[in-house]
Amino acid sequence: MANSESTSQRFYITTPIYYVNARPHLGHAYSTIVCDAIARRKRALGIDTWFLTGTDEHGEKIERSAKLAGRTSHEFADAIAAEFRGLWDRLGLTYDDFIRTTEPRHVRGVQHLFATLRDKGYIYKGFYTGQYCVSDEAWVDVEPGAPCPDCGRITETVSEENYFFKLSAFERKLLEFYEANPGFMQPESTRREVLSFVRSGLKDLSVSRTSFTWGIPVPGDEKHVVYVWLDALVNYISALGYGSDDDQKLKKFWPADIHLIGKEISRFHCVYWPAFLMAAGLPLPRSVRANGWLLFDQGKMSKSRGNIVRTETVHEVLGTDALRYFLLREIPFGQDGNFSFDALVQRYNGDLANGYGNLVSRVVNMVHKFFNGVVPEAGPETPAEQALRDTATHTIAEFAPAFDDLNFSEALKSLWILVADTDGYLTATAPWKRSENRSESEHTALQARVLATAAEAIRVITALVYPILPDAASKVWRQLGQGELSDAAKQAFLTNLVWGGLKAGTRFAEPAPLFPRAEKDAVTRMQNLEEENNRSAVDAASQRENAARSASVVPPPPPASPSVVPVQDPTTHPGAGIQQPTETAATSKVKSPVPAPADPAQSVATAPVSHVRAELASSRLSAAPAGVPLDSSAAVEQPSFITIDDFAKVDLRVAQILVAERVPKADKLLRLEVDLGYEKRQILAGIAQYYEPEKLIGRKIVIVANLAPRKMRGLESNGMLLAASLPPDGSPVLAGFLEDVPLGARLK
User: Fold this and answer.
1) Cβ-contact 706, 607 below 8 angstroms
2) List of long-range contacts for 167-172, beta carbons under 8 Å, 24+ apart
3) What is the pLDDT of residues 21-58, one digit of tens each?
4) Backbone phi and psi for residue 154, each to the nearest 5 degrees, phi listed first
5) At what angle do helices 440-465 and 470-479 cross, to 10 degrees?
6) Confidence class of residue 740 from pLDDT cuts 50, 70 and 90?
7) Of 157, 172, 376, 559, which one's alpha carbon is 20 to 30 angstroms from that of 133?
8) What letter does residue 582 receive in the DSSP assignment?
């Protein structure tokens, strides 16, 4: 099926719909802000644009999360969906529709597609036993009890009757489609990954579940619910009226021009979704564009890793435009990008406060001071004005293709060259200072020429930056006497953006500050807001866990020895996930803690010494220098009693040491890389005086897995070793095992 060419008359863009297992964070905002910027520019070019976002609310993970929270699944989904929509509104995002997968219009669309696929012979009933990742809501091709190759959590064995989609029938068709449409998948890394997955052979896919009920019932067989990814993907057409009596929006806007997604869900959008559409006889989307991960301290930002940053924190301290600019300027689209408060403040002060904001302030104030707020006649150009005009014209021509190719970073880089050149032009001509050899009339003529030229450059800059800095651009547009920028956007003002649009005689509005310089405490304020939020989240999670234990609501442990038993075709079973590249040492060294998966085993640490305690590497051991054992001069310590709830907060896990080496210029520290079975971590331990690094490799130890990361000597430590302190000097002895205990097992 060939991909139809995009028209210039309409444009349809979608975000991924966000899973409601947790509140929105900065990673969610990144994808949605990108889509908002694209939609704003398209509308300002006179293109009829539809921008869709929403929430994905079904699945086993939501059902379990709701139980842990003491709510019904619907109540849980309602609360989180409201948080997403409320935040998007607070950020001023211009989405045209917000789809929820619990809405009747979506349920109708999903059941219509399922029935269509079944009627066309692409869905059949069978029986499946295999590994399922509840976190990713995905079937994975791993051994029983093994971790998910994508997220690292322990998989569960599922054995149930399912409906299957004949994904294997579309292997050749998909490869032909990819070849005919090389721009369908971007960036190139996503394209290579998907091609490798399809070429390795497609297996039929389970598209229903019977072991839980929170989902859309299969039409005609209500004991089944539709597989959550088939359910979720349909949102892109159900929001346009697919399966209803009113499909005018579907006819107008489908196929989508851009599905913007996170790179971890490329398989679902580039393999499953096109196959479903081919089977149903529907046009395929024109492109799927995958953004990279937003990293915080070099780790993927996610709830499970405990390293999320709330969008509200940045919004409260620096404003939404600062966040939009940082994300689109700092992170080349399609690549992973690191977020830090320090980098955010530096970019804000450098590019926005001292750059664009200061330039606008200087020019608008001087027009008010020297010409009573009215744009003067510029008069004849000199080579300096011609050079700035040429730069602006070049910037207009260069900005558009870069932006339209989603190369926002380069587009903004070229635009800020014009900002710098305009600022340099002002400095060189110094209209505020009259030289001794210049008459009053000559100086006035220079002021008129320079300020009119600089103001026109600001008009061009503001028009181009509007999709990225909508609030600031609107303020500047009013200061330049151009009226409301929202009205100009409705009149497609970007279609005829050329030099010379600011006319003499235009009256400027009163100057107003745009980007007040961020003070030194801005980083601290944002860090404090996040720490406060994280403490609240930990307290809430603890309360939920305590309630769950009281109600005996826990996820079931994985069965011991599952097997794959296909029914209809002994050669196929539901498809596994794309095998993500194996973690390298560089990517696996530093990871934040993740919540404990279902316990694969229980074990007891042996410690034939006076007492056992967690040894090292966290700031929580504040009574002694980092990496130094606490004083244990007393042979016997009197315990202070804790409750079972206090102990339950400590997540003790079995790990194996893979790498052990000394930390340069730190006599007491060893850098360890440990394997937890479901992920690898770096831990710093103050045991270098007691253990030779090479003798630790391969040893199984116990770690405290749910401590917040801490940096020492420029390295991050993610956990603490469990050790016993021996009197009289407190020398540590690592806890160990007599039995063979699986990695990742939790100690109780």
Assistant:
1) no
2) 167/202, 167/203, 167/204, 167/205, 167/271, 167/272, 167/275, 167/575, 168/201, 168/202, 168/203, 168/204, 168/572, 169/122, 170/202, 170/274, 170/275, 170/278, 170/279, 171/198, 171/201, 171/202
3) 888 989 999 999 999 999 999 999 999 999 999 999 99
4) -65, 130
5) 150
6) confident
7) 172
8) P
**CA separation for the pair 453, 359 (Å, rounded):** 13
Distance separating alpha carbons of residues 577 and 569, to the nearest angstrom: 20
Least trusted range by pLDDT, from 130-144, 375-389, 404-418, 668-682: 130-144
Give the pLDDT confidence score for residue 642 in this predicted structure: 67
The reported pLDDT for the residue numbered 184 is: 97
Tokens of 242: 């697919």
148 token code pair: 């998910």
Task: State the Cα–Cα distance between residues 671 and 662, nearest whole angstrom.
Answer: 6
Report how far Cα 435 is from the mean position of its chain's Cα atoms.
Answer: 54
Q: Yes or no: say if 82 and 71 are a contact pair by the CB < 8 Å rule.
A: no
Instruction: Please state, in angstroms and rounded to a whole number, the distance separating the CA atoms of residues 469 and 475.
Output: 10
Alpha carbon separation from 543 to 67, 536, 653, 747 (Å, rounded): 13, 11, 22, 21
Per-residue pLDDT at 589 exceeds 70: no
Distances (CA, A) of 259 to 52, 300, 337, 703: 10, 21, 20, 42
Average pLDDT for 263-290: 97
Query: Which residue, chain included where needed, has tokens 């499909």?
Result: 247
Q: CB-based contacts of 74: which residues, under 8 Å, 6+ apart?
A: 102
Can you give the pTM of this predicted structure? 0.71
CB 205 within 8 A of CB 272: yes
Contacts of 147 (CB under 8 A, 6+ apart): 153, 154, 155, 677, 678, 679, 744
Contact assessment for residue 521 and residue 527, using Cβ atoms and an 8 Å cutoff: no
Is residue 591 pLDDT above 70, yes or no?
no
Q: What distance in Å separates the CA atoms of residue 239 and residue 55, rounded to the nearest whole number?
A: 12
